[in-house]
Amino acid sequence: MIGKTGEKMELAHYLFIEAPITFSYNHQGNRLATIVGFNKVAVDGIEEVGHEIAMQIAAMAPVAIDKDDVDPQTIEKEIEIGKDLARQEGKPEEMVEKIALGKLNRFFKENTLLNQEFIRENKLTVHQYLQSHDKDLTVTSFKRLKLGE
Fold this sequence. Notes:
By secondary structure, this protein is α+β, with helices and mostly antiparallel strands. The chain has helices spanning 2-5, 46-60, 72-88, 93-111, 126-133; strands spanning 21-26, 32-38, 139-146. It has a 3-stranded antiparallel β-sheet with strand order 1-2-3. Strand 1 and strand 2 form a beta hairpin. Helix 3 crosses helix 4. The protein is globular and about 65 Å long.
């Protein structure tokens, strides 16, 4: 590419995933790209499913596949934020923990891929969408790359 463009280019880093089948999505403008891997190849409409989930990742920027995959430090940080917000709102100290756990559950729903609302049909979660195609289909891994991050 250096010879074609005349510009010095340097590969800063790269990411890869391993899965039985993978799909990628490159958003318009080439500033955002995703790659997602699934556990099964033999699923009717897997190409459409792969494309839809790759776009979901681009649009919603999940932090993990499911709540079990979220970094423990992130969980602790979210609980502390929830406690601080509850205290600032003047909630009783015995309710602060419950409120923080409720906010943590909302964090999981909004920021973990399988628990997010499916962007094409918000009555379904991503997990339910995958189950509608094959009861054993799930995401094994994903990566989201954005220029400047």
